[in-house]
Amino acid sequence: MSMQSMALLGAFLAVLLALAWPLGRLLARVGEGGPVPGFGWLAPLERLLYRAGGVAPDTGMGWKSYATALLVFNGLGALFVYGVQRLQAFLPLNPQALGNVSPDSSFNTAVSFVANTNWQGYGGEQTMSYLTQMVALSGQNFFSAATGIAVAFALIRGFSARSAASIGNFWADLTRSTLYVLLPLSLVFAVFLMGQGVVQNFNSYQEVQLIEPVAYAAPEAKVAATQTIAMGPVASQEAIKLIGTNGGGFFNANSAHPYENPSALSNFAQMLAIFLIPAALCFAFGRMVGDTRQGWAILGAMSLMFVVAAGVVMNAEQAVHPQLAALGVDQGASSLQAGGNMEGKEARFGIAASSLFAAVTTAASCGAVNAMHDSFTPIGGMLPMLLMQLGEVVFGGVGSGLYGMLVFAIMAVFIAGLMIGRTPEYLGKKIQAHEMKMTSIAILVTPLLVLGGTALAVMLDAGRAGIANPGAHGFSEILYAFSSAANNNGSAFAGLSANTPFYNTMLAIAMWFGRFAVIVPVLAIAGALAAKPRLKENAGTMPTHGPVFIGLLVGVVMLVGVLNYVPALALGPVVEHLQLYTK
């Protein structure tokens, strides 16, 4: 790694920690259900929302009721997003007169935004009207993020409760997470982005004169003297896209577009926004269970894995390309390859910031991109893929990163209990057969979706038809797509033609079950733990806040995550990397 990369990574982690600590205190107050300091002026609005919805926020729910409410709410949200897309030609705020979205693309997009995946098989500025972007897509950006926070709160209550039948109230958690956390943060961040140059308007697309006309290739040899520049309410969607770890861009180029990500400062702030709530939830977890050391331990495990992964990506992208070096291609200061692999990267960000962004967005369940991952080196592209395949628990998504990591923590203490011959305990709760069954389902469902979907795609003509690149790289494109969908990330290698009925359907199935087939077992674990008494520590209790536990947790995440995918990775990026050195 270059000194620039190390300095950028160090500054990023330092600022993240400084911002996440106070936000963690706020999140803890939100999850505990009491008054939120500094936001008392929003309390009347909260009560009004409860009355309008007929919700009794103090009424606790068992895990089954909580899960039912969550599934019904998100199912209705998917139907709403689907309907808006199918009718957008007849709805207002459509100055470009864009037509209705096709049924299979509408289905894929509806599931994608409800599942906090935001996979986009379409170009946003050419497909979605302003109303669709603002009401349907941005609305689900808030609700899907709030759903993840709600599940994290429910699982934390399972650990902190003492023989309770309730894990909280889904409607209250959803409302408070949106009102006190997501809306204020998004408002502040949207204003900051507008100050940096992100557009926010309802103007029609602008036709502007080019300073220098562009001549197209034969046969027509046309000369273009004008260019169409897309407009729209971008900053408002951009803010929650990042803070909610959603990732869906207003424009097709996502955060590589200058109207979504204009400057080096906005790029740095966007990376912070992606990790902010996932990091803060670790501190909220420690406060809510009554032991801040537990939050630091989870954060330490996440940070350790992230630093290693980010370092590998940065190093891989800054290394000299062996085939270009063998050809004697100049890689000096004036070269396109200056300092490493600049292909697919924005010049205003460079290799270090683009590589770090790739690691951040795939470690979190975000999927926003400021460079084309399809143009990364094989190892540089494999690490973002692997970060997703780990279950996106290296910070992970809003809420989903914490509850995913806590699931691995349960497995870690179970393995430790087997090794020392004691009944496993975590935070004073015994981990027994039921919890381990639910843990196994939560961990294994995504590899089943990823590997099963990839296998079907490479076996069927409809799947192979979308491959733009033959051989190992084409296989990597499919593997990346299903890894992204099943783990609710949403980024893509961008070389796979996935806006087809086959991929829209298959990826939508992976996104839905990758989200909710994990959430339901997590809520079942929360309900089982809440019903158990919380035991006091004794001389035989395994500490779960020190370096030994952090090392055990990292080892379990790496072993369970990596072993599922080693054969598939060997067929894709590993083979492609070795081919770089063949004569």
UniProtKB/TrEMBL annotation:
<keyword id="KW-0406">Ion transport</keyword>
<feature type="transmembrane region" description="Helical">
    <location>
        <begin position="393"/>
        <end position="420"/>
    </location>
</feature>
<feature type="transmembrane region" description="Helical">
    <location>
        <begin position="268"/>
        <end position="289"/>
    </location>
</feature>
<keyword id="KW-0633">Potassium transport</keyword>
<keyword id="KW-0378">Hydrolase</keyword>
<comment type="subunit">
    <text>The system is composed of three essential subunits: KdpA, KdpB and KdpC.</text>
</comment>
<keyword id="KW-0472">Membrane</keyword>
<dbReference type="GO" id="GO:0016787">
    <property type="term" value="F:hydrolase activity"/>
</dbReference>
<feature type="transmembrane region" description="Helical">
    <location>
        <begin position="142"/>
        <end position="159"/>
    </location>
</feature>
<feature type="transmembrane region" description="Helical">
    <location>
        <begin position="441"/>
        <end position="460"/>
    </location>
</feature>
<feature type="transmembrane region" description="Helical">
    <location>
        <begin position="179"/>
        <end position="199"/>
    </location>
</feature>
<feature type="transmembrane region" description="Helical">
    <location>
        <begin position="506"/>
        <end position="529"/>
    </location>
</feature>
<keyword id="KW-0813">Transport</keyword>
<keyword id="KW-1003">Cell membrane</keyword>
<feature type="transmembrane region" description="Helical">
    <location>
        <begin position="549"/>
        <end position="571"/>
    </location>
</feature>
<feature type="transmembrane region" description="Helical">
    <location>
        <begin position="295"/>
        <end position="314"/>
    </location>
</feature>
<keyword id="KW-1133">Transmembrane helix</keyword>
<feature type="transmembrane region" description="Helical">
    <location>
        <begin position="349"/>
        <end position="373"/>
    </location>
</feature>
<dbReference type="InterPro" id="IPR004623">
    <property type="entry name" value="KdpA"/>
</dbReference>
<keyword id="KW-0630">Potassium</keyword>
<keyword id="KW-0812">Transmembrane</keyword>
<protein>
    <recommendedName>
        <fullName>Potassium-transporting ATPase potassium-binding subunit</fullName>
    </recommendedName>
</protein>
<comment type="similarity">
    <text>Belongs to the KdpA family.</text>
</comment>
<dbReference type="GO" id="GO:0030955">
    <property type="term" value="F:potassium ion binding"/>
</dbReference>
<feature type="transmembrane region" description="Helical">
    <location>
        <begin position="66"/>
        <end position="84"/>
    </location>
</feature>
<dbReference type="GO" id="GO:0005886">
    <property type="term" value="C:plasma membrane"/>
</dbReference>
<dbReference type="GO" id="GO:0008556">
    <property type="term" value="F:P-type potassium transmembrane transporter activity"/>
</dbReference>
<comment type="function">
    <text>Part of the high-affinity ATP-driven potassium transport (or Kdp) system, which catalyzes the hydrolysis of ATP coupled with the electrogenic transport of potassium into the cytoplasm. This subunit binds the extracellular potassium ions and delivers the ions to the membrane domain of KdpB through an intramembrane tunnel.</text>
</comment>
<dbReference type="Pfam" id="PF03814">
    <property type="entry name" value="KdpA"/>
</dbReference>
